[in-house]
Amino acid sequence: MIFAIVPVLLITLLIGARGVAAMRTTSDFLVASRRISPAVNAAAVSGEYLSAASFLGIAGLVVKDGVGSLWYAVGFAAGYVAMLALVAAPMRRTGALTVPDFAEARLGSPALRKLSAVVVLVIGFLYLVPQFTAAGQVLGVVSGSRTGWAS
């Protein structure tokens, strides 16, 4: 297993080092200097959306509650489209790169910017914990490993 993890780690570090060397401004970092094509951006967004939460979560709900829980996936997709229309499009028009930037630009409140930054971090944390848990469980099943806190 170490022979699989080390090359991936090294390639990730190499890509990161190359990206940092090309970065000049915050905009370069946050939006890749606007050099990403729509197709590549769509693939990245799709990869984020089609995550362990989407696959394992919905599959688990179907096993647990039956086929009627497939409506959750419809709700997720509808919420995603609403987010794109109601948040992403206005952010793009104002030139804001993050939700806290947008909140301050739209309402002129540095305190609201700080509050929205905290909310973004909390939501990110609540999203990442199940992602890492699912990834660890899948890795444990695939590798046969039983090490860690949960064992």
Mean pLDDT: 82
Q: Let me know the number of strands.
A: 0
Total domain modules: 3
Helix content: over 70%
The number of helical runs is 7
> Terminal Cα separation, in Å?
19 Å
The SS-based structural class is mainly alpha
Q: Which overall shape is indicated by the principal axes computed on the Cα atoms?
A: globular
Report the radius of gyration as a whole number of Å. 19 Å
**Major sheet attributes:** none
SSE order, as H and E? HHHHHHH
Q: Beta-strand percentage?
A: under 5%
Unreliable stretches, pLDDT < 50, 5 or more residues? none
Describe the structure.
With 151 residues, this protein is an all-alpha fold. Helices cover 79% and strands 0% of the residues. The longest helix has 34 residues, at 110-143. The mean pLDDT is 82.
Which properties best describe this structure?
151 residues, 3 domains, 79% helix, mainly alpha, 7 helices, single chain, 0% strand
Q: Layout of helices and strands, plus pairs?
A:
Elements (H helix, E strand, L loop, with lengths): L1 H21 L3 H6 L6 H12 L2 H14 L5 H24 L4 H9 L2 H34 L8
Helix pairs in contact: 6-7
